[in-house]
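Data availability (excerpt). The following record was deposited with the supplementary files.
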Amino acid sequence: MSKERARRRAAREADQERARAARARRVARRERRRSWVRVLTPRLRRGRTGRLRRHSRGERAAIVLLTAVAVAGIWSFVDDLALRLALVVLLLLVLPAIVVIALDRR
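Predicted structure:
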């Protein structure tokens, strides 16, 4: 009777050890996969890093609103289509310089 229990206990412990080893392999594989995903995914920068983050939400809204008003003014007061397009393109090219001159805090 004692030998039978010892044999069953040894079989049960062997099964548990196999299950533990299989789980350890799964966990190790998952950790390797996660580490590769961490290596391959780009990191997002937090804080004030982008070009648009330099200005507050109100300043950005004012920039967009005034640009839209200027484009609407160009389209309503200028008759020639080629001149309209040229002025809008010129406005969009000069807009970053205007924003830096008007809102730069440095």
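Summary of structural features: DSSP finds three helices and no strands in the chain.
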